[in-house]
Amino acid sequence: MGRISKKRKEVLAKYDLDKTYSLAEACDLVKEITTTKFDASVDVSVRLGVDPRKANQMIRGTVALPHGTGKDVRVLVLCTPDKEEEAKAAGADHVGLDDYIAKIKGGWTDIDVIITMPAVMGKVGALGRVLGPRGLMPNPKTGTVTMDVAKAVQEVKAGKIDFRVDKYGIVHSSVGKVSFEGVKIKDNASELISTLIKMKPAAAKGTYVKSIYLSSTMSPSIQIDTKSVVA
């Protein structure tokens, strides 16, 4: 067996691997067991009783986190010239169309979210091979294809995130930073989990929320008692 570091011993002294914690307990505990020198992200993983291969059990949507993500989200708006000033005033980091499409085709993807308009989706659609694998392709279902680009920019900057179940039936999402107060992490996590619960497909049978884990960058995962968040 390998040698356990001093920091690891300190973490294990505060944390019971075999215990399930309430969401409130876990949100306080994750702050205590995080030893990174940077402000680590706090992530939630929810395993759902769905089969993502079936269209009627695909879980995808958006949620506005009450306290934001703690991350400076870089937003690109691809729009017609008449919408450019509106997008800039709302806080978009990059605004344009043809010039940015050319940059993306050349491999540039130094952004977190792309917002666009229905009228230019014909041009944006050609970027699918570049944007799709990176999760950057705008989609009407996540509110990133809209005529109201200013509102979309403001929502993303304020903490609106999108989520999608993976092929294993798990939704992974960041819900804040370790520097957040425990109660703010809890509020954000609760908002995400309650949104997922409301989206339960009629076709999903048996237990819907199978497990929930909370962790930070490089910290152990904390198992949450699903009864503490699922009525």
Summarize the structure.
The chain has 231 residues and is of the alpha/beta class. 30% of the residues lie in helices and 21% in strands.
What does this structure look like?
The chain has 231 residues and is an alpha/beta fold. It folds into two domains: 17-69 and 161-228, Ribulose 1,5 Bisphosphate Carboxylase/Oxygenase (2-Layer Sandwich); 75-157, Rossmann fold. It is 30% helix and 21% strand. The chain is built from eight helices and nine strands. The chain has helices at residues 6-14, 23-32, 84-90, 98-105, 121-124, 128-131, 149-158, 182-198, and strands at 41-48, 60-64, 75-78, 94-96, 113-116, 160-164, 170-177, 209-216, 222-224. The strands form three sheets. It has a four-stranded antiparallel sheet, covered by helices on one side. Strands 4-3-5 form a three-stranded parallel sheet, sandwiched between helices. A two-stranded antiparallel ribbon has the order 2-6. Helix 3 links the parallel strand 3 (75-78) and strand 4 (94-96). Helix 2 (23-32) packs across helix 8 and helix 3 (84-90) packs parallel to helix 7. The chain is globular.
Number of strands: 9
Supply the CATH architecture of the largest domain. 2-Layer Sandwich
Q: Largest sheet, if any?
A: 4 strands, antiparallel
Task: Indicate the low-confidence ranges by residue numbers.
Answer: none
How would you write the strand order of the largest sheet? 7-1-8-9
Instruction: Name the helix and strand elements from N-terminus to C-terminus, one letter apiece.
Output: HHEEEHEHEHHHEEHEE
The assembly state of the depicted protein chains is: single chain
Kindly report the CATH topology of the largest domain.
Answer: Ribulose 1,5 Bisphosphate Carboxylase/Oxygenase
